[in-house]
Specification:
23% of the residues lie in helices and 25% in strands. The protein has 318 residues and is an alpha+beta fold. The chain folds into 3 domains: 11-87, Uridine Diphospho-n-acetylenolpyruvylglucosamine Reductase, domain 2, CATH 3.30.43.10; 89-197, Uridine Diphospho-n-acetylenolpyruvylglucosamine Reductase, domain 3; 219-310, Uridine Diphospho-n-acetylenolpyruvylglucosamine Reductase, domain 1 (Alpha-Beta Complex), CATH 3.90.78. A hairpin with a 6-residue loop joins strand 17 (263-265) and strand 18 (272-275).
Length: 318
């Protein structure tokens, strides 16, 4: 079957979770912009997810999303089926020296729960988003990356297969993994180091203080807009100390506080793209592209987006 012009309930397998047609995506994304999802699927559990994908027509587009912390959905909306995992996928359990963390668990919550168990995931405390996204992007902070603690992931493939994939097969690199875009992570299996809960809490409190002093945490943003042009150690591992900073390149190009419509590069941290209250997705993406062009003209360095931009643009009048 070819992709239907519009997906109807008859085009989709039955589910025990929920299927919502025309769900407003702006409500689900931190930047609060974007058109509707054609269909939003929230599975009841992993069985529901696997059965649905096994029977879903392969011609229908599929997009897994987390908590929308690193996402611009364009104003024309997102076609196909969007899969968003809920609370049943947000648990954390310790077993055999490992932590099994659901893909929908917020990074910050996982860091705090792990600390209470004497396990060190403190680098996740200030990273926006969920564990599934942290795995897919090999998220990192303060010199630590998911690759340092990850041992394996559980995923459900586009065909509904349930797989456990060892970390060595994921191709983790700076803000990158080789996981197929339409595979859905359901759980990460982690082996973090040990630490005293009080010491781990104190470290996270210090990180929060540093973050609040330098980042626009009360504004509508999606975290860092562009990746730092990566530096690497002699072993080939990403090395924050060797990397150029995207914020510095933006600042040096005179773009701190730059605006387009309701979008702005934060005056507090110029690598944060902010919705000041009236931005459209086109404003945000347009400002980001303008910043990329001007940084390249100033420094010769081409910034790469860290925020994902997905969906359909609305044609401009005229």
């Amino acid at each position: 079957m070819s992709v239907p012009d519009r997906i109807s309930p008859h085009d989709l397998p039955p589910v025990r979770g929920s299927l919502t047609f025309g769900r407003a995506m702006a409500d689900l994304c931190w930047l609060r912009v974007g058109g509707p999802a054609e269909v939003l699927f929230q599975p009841a559990d992993e069985d529901d997810l696997a059965e649905f994908l096994a029977r879903l027509d392969p011609a229908i587009p599929l997009f897994p999303m987390g908590v929308g912390s690193n996402l611009i959905v364009r104003d024309g909306g997102l076609p196909g089926v969007i899969v968003r995992l809920g609370r049943r996928f947000a648990g954390l359990q310790a077993a055999g020296g490992l932590l099994h963390v659901g893909a929908a668990a917020l990074d910050a919550h996982a860091a705090r729960q792990a600390a209470a168990l004497g396990r060190d995931l403190t680098f996740l405390r200030t990273i926006p988003g969920s564990i599934g996204g942290a795995v897919r992007m090999n998220a990192g902070c303060y010199g630590s990356y998911m690759a340092d603690v990850l041992r394996a992931v559980r995923v459900v493939s586009r065909r509904g297969e349930r797989l456990e994939i060892a970390v060595d097969a994921l191709g983790l690199a700076y803000r990158h993994s080789d996981l197929p875009e339409d595979s859905i992570i359901t759980e990460a299996i982690l082996a973090p180091g040990a630490g005293h809960p009080d010491a781990l809490e104190a470290r996270m409190a210090e990180q929060m203080t540093r973050r609040d002093a330098t980042q626009p945490v009360r504004d509508r943003s999606a975290g860092s807009t562009f990746r730092n042009p990566a530096g690497f150690s002699s072993t080939g591992r990403p090395d924050d100390s060797q990397a150029m900073k995207a914020w510095k390149l933006i600042d040096d190009a005179g773009l701190r506080g730059a605006r387009l419509g309701g979008a702005q590069m934060s005056p507090k941290h110029p690598n944060f793209l902010v919705n000041t209250g009236t931005a459209t997705a086109a404003d945000l993406e347009g400002l980001g592209e303008d910043v990329r062009k001007k940084v390249f003209l100033h420094s010769g360095i081409s910034l790469e987006w860290e925020i994902r931009r997905v969906g359909l643009s609305v044609p401009q009048a005229g």
